[in-house]
Amino acid sequence: MLYVAFDGSYGDSEGMVVVDNESFDEHFYNYLDSCADWNRPSYAKWFEENDHDFTQAENLDWACSVCDDWFESEQ
Q1: Is the pLDDT of residue 72 over 80?
Q2: Nearest CA to 30 among 48, 46, 54?
Q3: Band (73; pLDDT cuts 50, 70, 90)
Q4: Structure confidence by residue, pLDDT tens digits, 22-53
Q5: DSSP labels for the chain?
Q6: Residue 38 vs residues 2, 41, 53: alpha-carbon distances, Å
Q7: Which pTM value belongs to this model?
Q8: Closest alpha carbon to 2 in 40, 12, 62
Q9: What is the spatial distance between Cα 54 and Cα 64, in angstroms, rounded to a whole number?
């Protein structure tokens, strides 16, 4: 399958994830920016299915303990 985006990009859609980000907060985008390319689709899908409030973690100001736990389980 092929995807074509409004920004003009296109390519193979295998592994592509589309999520509704209407209720996402800033900590979702901080994690999305910090995770590896191969991990972004899994994280986006997990976050959408497990929408949660930001819960402060100890390591960074923008870090969330719920998201940190997910990332540790993926390694």
Answers
A1: yes
A2: 54
A3: confident
A4: 888 888 888 888 888 888 888 888 888 887 77
A5: -EEE-TTS-EEE-TT------TT--HHHHHHHHHS-GGGHHHHHHHHHHT-----B-SS-TT-BHHHHHHHHHH-
A6: 18, 7, 25
A7: 0.71
A8: 12
A9: 6
